[in-house]
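Task: fold both queries, return tokens.
Query 1:
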Amino acid sequence: METFEAKLKPSERKLLDGLDSPIKIQTFLNSIPYSEDKFYRCPLRVLRERKAHCFDGALFAAMAIRRSGRPPLILELIPNERDDDHILVLFKQYNHWGAVAQSNFSGLRYREPVFRSLRELVMSYFEDFFNAVGEKTLVGYRGPINLKVFDRLDWMWSDAGLEKLSNDMDRYKVHPVISPEMAAGLSMMDERSLRAGMIGTNPAGLFKVKKP
């Protein structure tokens, strides 16, 4: 953290000092555009460019959560092959789990700390986790992962190790939340819910769904 703090300009440090709670971090993420870029931005770059996709936003939130004294825990939501994954930043309050996230979909962002278990938290995202054609795609989750184990990659202020960080996350176990039989029987999103979940999306950042 000392190295990261030394790289901040006074105005950047003042902004981050104001992000002293999960909801304030979420409000910041909600205020910046969703990135369609295929590369990763470290938190320092997100702070300066004011743009982030899911992975970038999660790293930024984890950094900000860490500055506030909480551990930088992330959890990856795992879809089927017809969607992108999604990353949450976890926090606990009153012994219950909540989450912060950047997303192109309105329903995949903040969760209040009211969930008794990680699975309960994950399942709160189930009905909102769908692709651009309305298929529900969430099948499991991976984590929690403490980003402190990746500090050697300088992930808070350098882009150089972010591809490796992303790849190394794959070694963590995936916990299924539904069976293949359940997945095969899922209904499509109704049209109104689909429209509501995609309000304000950046079309260029959507997963390109191939026809079955």
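Query 1 returned. Query 2:
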Amino acid sequence: MADFLRLSAGTWLSVRSVHHFDFSPDQSGESNLIITLLEQDDEVVERVCAQQGIPASAATIGARFQWQGNHKKGPADERYGAVLVDLPGEHPGHGRLVRDVGYVEATPVISAYRFNTDGLLTIDTIYDRNTGTERCWFINEDVRVRVGTVQLMDGPNLISYATETRCTPLEELEELRRAAQQRC
């Protein structure tokens, strides 16, 4: 999981399609997904672990996930994000993720995860009234895919699909522009 999160760090253009099985408003669209790594001794990692009564020493790494409109300037709004912390399991490629805010229900939650041999990550979360499954994998280091389902007690509620493309920082683009101009 630590390697997966390190590869995920950065800003991504997320293009998402959501199909609801009821009459909920459409959530399809584009946004920026900003992923920032947090070290084991970060106070935020310690706070998230403490919410669940887990010692921070059991964690290996954390990450802050923030969503922001892709045309919005300035820092991301803290209300549109979550922090997750990796708690590796006894078996390689298995573990738990502690989140300060769940994706489906806005409460602290612990999810189980596992990696397939091909690198596909599956995260299963059981909430009070719902269950969620998300699968995520890399096409290459600059393109990720996520597929998710949310199921209520009486059947599926929504299915989502997102393609996420890494955004190159402006400093790197400027450096590439200068290098290209020097070659001309």
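Both queries returned. Flag for query 2: The beta strands are 10-20, 29-39, 61-68, 81-88, 94-99, 109-115, 121-126, 130-140, 143-152, 155-166.
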